[in-house]
Write a structure and sequence with these properties.
single chain; mainly alpha; flat
Length: about 100
């Protein structure tokens, strides 16, 4: 169950990053509400996950998924610039998170 909470926290983090941009500095009420809702879900699920998963591992995975997903959302939803160097650096973050998880056993 803790990994399910961490997964939900990560998915919600993707949502709150998207809605933060769409809220345009909290000037659009619906997007602002969506941001606070998804942020609350993310932090709640994360708090449940860290009851059973070491904080160093949980936070690294949570942030890594957020980094990878926010790069994809930025590129596809907001037409942010893509480069292979940026993709490689994000890949290194993901590999590092997986490495930390594997070493935590």
């Amino acid at each position: 169950m803790p990994w399910l909470y961490l997964s939900l926290a990560s998915v919600s983090e993707i949502g709150f990053a998207y809605f933060l941009v769409k809220s345009d500095g909290f000037s659009h009420r619906a997007y602002t509400i969506a941001f606070f809702t998804t942020a609350s879900i993310s932090f709640y699920c994360f708090s449940k996950a860290v009851q059973h998963i070491p904080i160093g591992i949980a936070y690294t995975i949570w942030v890594s998924i957020g980094v990878v997903a926010s790069q994809l959302v930025g590129h596809f939803a907001f037409q942010e610039h893509f480069s292979w160097l940026k993709a490689f650096l994000v890949f290194l973050i993901l590999v590092s998170a997986i490495g930390l998880k594997l070493l935590s056993r």
